[in-house]
Amino acid sequence: MFEILGIPPQALFGQMLLGLINGSFYAMLSLGLAVIFGMLNIINFAHGAFYMMGAFAAWMLLAYLGLGFYWALLLAPLLVGSFGILVERTMLCRLYRLDHLYGLLFTFGLALVIQGLFRQEFGASGLPYGIPAEMRGGSNLGFMFLPYYRGFVLAASVVVCFGTWFVIERTKLGAYLRAGTENPTLVQAFGVNVPRIIALTYGFGVALAGLAGVLAAPIYSVNPLMGSDLIIVVFAVVVIGGLGSVLGAIVTGFGLGLIEGLTKVFYPEASSTVIFVVMALVLLVRPAGLFGREG
């Protein structure tokens, strides 16, 4: 088969697929961050820890209760989201009237505590989590080999991301969420329970991180530090897309994952820094981000 710029198509499309898989996790995590920041004005530095908790929840459901991957897809995000609601109702709600820096410092400290507890209990070497039996193997498409599980991750992330965007931007519930953050006093006067909406919004945002952790567990294994490195990249994705922009988080997440994958083919030395180079260039031209609002 023909080569593209001297690179076999299997290698090129294979790296593009890996880039889109990474982009799936970038998009889901940055989507949760964008929802929390856009609705609550909180920079949630604990997002990587919630991602890790989702992976560990899936592992513990299997190891202790014998519940497999599909049960984990349902239960792990609910468990992580419930923990997020508890954090928001007991601690984070006290910081809303203070400077954003207090929320950032609190969530950063919370991430360190969570990671430390899991590392103390499970160690730092990582734990295996197998791919479901029916998703093992793959299909030869001619120009590339498509593993079934990675195809499932890509499809699931697209459905979750754009489903979330539709709910927030195109439904009455999304209108209540946006109105409750912009003018909570007025919305509460119409009988809407704004504190409950805020708690559920935060819980939903961290549940997205937990879901991403479940999907990532069979690919990257389960490790207490799996979210600490990823969260820096995800913050860069959110900044490029525009802080608080749901659509920006989704499009930028997938797009930057693809750019990262292509960079590994044509210039591997820059693959770990290309996202930050893109961030610097975007901020020079458009400080609010690609989809952010000026001012």
What is the topology?
Blueprint: H1 9-40, H2 47-65, H3 69-90, H4 100-122, E1 138-140, E2 145-147, H5 148-170, H6 172-182, H7 184-189, H8 194-220, H9 226-241, H10 246-266, H11 274-285
Antiparallel strand pairs: 1-2
Helix pairs in contact: 1-5, 1-8, 1-9, 1-10, 2-3, 2-4, 2-8, 2-9, 3-8, 5-6, 6-8, 9-10, 9-11
Concise account of the structure shown:
The chain is built from eleven helices and two strands. It has 295 residues and is mostly helical. It has a single domain (9-119, 127-285), classed as ABC transporter involved in vitamin B12 uptake, BtuC (Orthogonal Bundle).
Defining traits:
single chain, 295 residues, mainly alpha, ABC transporter involved in vitamin B12 uptake, BtuC, two-stranded antiparallel sheet, 2 strands, globular
**What form results from the Cα inertia axes?**
globular
Helicity range of the residues? Answer: over 70%
Query: If you consult CATH, what is the topology?
Result: ABC transporter involved in vitamin B12 uptake, BtuC
Tally of DSSP helical segments? 11
Which structural class is indicated by helix and strand composition? mainly alpha
Task: Report strand order across the widest sheet.
Answer: 1-2
Largest sheet: 2 strands, antiparallel
Task: Supply the CATH architecture.
Answer: Orthogonal Bundle
Low-confidence stretches: none
Q: Find the count of extended strands (DSSP E, 2+ residues).
A: 2
